């Protein structure tokens, strides 16, 4: 049998080799970008959230949403400090932290809490936090103690009222649903659904739960925006049920959900098409 390669002209063979080499170089560049650039290429996003009958005192109230910091070997404390610096420069009125501050080792909790606590000195309405699944895996109680000791308010299935003069905004925190720590009775005790509310929940799955109906806004993380999002395809992770709400703003029966892409990473040390995000949400009054 005649060798097929003998029928390929030298010029065509050279072209095919060049094409293969170009493809390999392209893949190498994409790999380098996904591991060395995008995981630390933070994006500060700005989104207006319109809420019915928002008190005038909270019109233009700006919430900086930080989630999934994942301080670990993959996310050194210097990167956590960069997130804090970018957030502080945005001059929000309040900071919402929605979990997964570390990944798996208790030794990372205190340095992370110390670095995040800088925001308590520059944000007038305070820093409010809930725990995520990785926090419970690492040490939930130690995380809570480290945060509270440094002035970070942890809403452990609890709620509070932020006040500006005579106006109030209800802020609710529910503990991680996936870890079985959610207690809706405690979280919603005393909440008036006829008044504007902001719920902090690590997992966006709560958006479909009956307990969240009638709430104004839910802030969540957990998904990392899929961490990898392919051109023309999107995040493959969105086909997993718990990642149904993978990034951005959603609305259902008057309740809005914002899912941040977060700032850290876990598992594969890559991000592609899912830049780490610090979300700034400006509340706007919507008349009925």
Q: How much helicity do the residues have? A: 10-25%
Shape: globular
Strand composition percent: 15-25%
Number of strands: 12
Across the major sheet, the strand order is 1-12-2-3-4-5
CATH class of the largest domain: Alpha Beta
Order of helices and strands: HEEHEHEHEEEHEEEEE
Give a summary of the structure in a few sentences.
The protein is α/β, with parallel strands linked by helices. Helix content is 24%, strand content 25%.
Describe the protein's architecture and organization.
The chain has 288 residues and is α/β, with parallel strands linked by helices. It is built from 5 helices and 12 strands. The strands form 2 sheets. It has a 6-stranded mixed beta sheet with strand order 1-12-2-3-4-5.
Strand-helix topology:
Elements: H1 10-37, E1 43-52, E2 61-66, H2 77-89, E3 94-98, H3 109-116, E4 127-130, H4 133-149, E5 153-154, E6 158-164, E7 167-174, H5 184-187, E8 197-201, E9 217-220, E10 248-252, E11 255-259, E12 277-286
Parallel strand pairs: 1-12, 2-3, 3-4, 4-5, 7-8, 8-9, 9-11
Antiparallel strand pairs: 2-12, 6-7, 10-11
Keywords:
single chain; 288 residues; alpha/beta; Purple Acid Phosphatase, chain A, domain 2; 2 domains; 6-stranded mixed sheet; 5 helices
């Amino acid at each position: 049998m005649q060798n097929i390669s003998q029928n390929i002209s030298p010029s065509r063979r050279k072209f095919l080799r060049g094409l293969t080499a170009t493809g390999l170089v392209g893949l190498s560049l994409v790999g380098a970008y996904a591991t060395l650039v995008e995981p630390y290429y933070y994006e500060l996003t700005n989104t207006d959230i319109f809420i019915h009958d928002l008190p005038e005192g909270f019109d233009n109230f700006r919430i900086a949403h930080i989630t999934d910091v994942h301080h670990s070997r993959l996310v050194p404390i210097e990167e956590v400090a960069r997130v804090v610096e970018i957030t502080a420069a945005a001059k929000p009125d309040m900071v919402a932290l929605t979990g997964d501050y570390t990944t798996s080792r208790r030794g990372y909790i205190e340095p992370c809490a110390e670095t995040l606590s800088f925001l308590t000195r520059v944000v007038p309405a305070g820093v409010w936090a809930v725990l995520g699944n990785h926090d419970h895996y690492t040490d939930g109680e130690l995380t809570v103690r480290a945060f509270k000791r440094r002035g970070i308010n942890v809403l452990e299935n609890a709620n509070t009222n932020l006040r500006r003069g005579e106006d109030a905004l209800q802020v609710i925190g529910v503990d991680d649903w996936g870890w079985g720590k959610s207690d809706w009775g405690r979280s919603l005790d005393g909440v008036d659904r006829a008044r504007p509310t902001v719920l902090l929940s690590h997992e966006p799955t709560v958006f479909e739960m009956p307990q969240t109906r009638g709430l104004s806004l839910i802030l969540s993380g957990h998904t990392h925006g899929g961490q990898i999002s392919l051109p023309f395809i999107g995040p493959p992770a969105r086909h997993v049920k718990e990642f149904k709400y993978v990034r951005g703003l959603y609305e259902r029966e008057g309740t809005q959900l914002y899912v941040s892409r977060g700032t850290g990473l876990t598992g594969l040390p890559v991000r592609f098409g899912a830049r780490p995000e610090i979300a700034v949400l400006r509340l706007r009054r919507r008349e009925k």
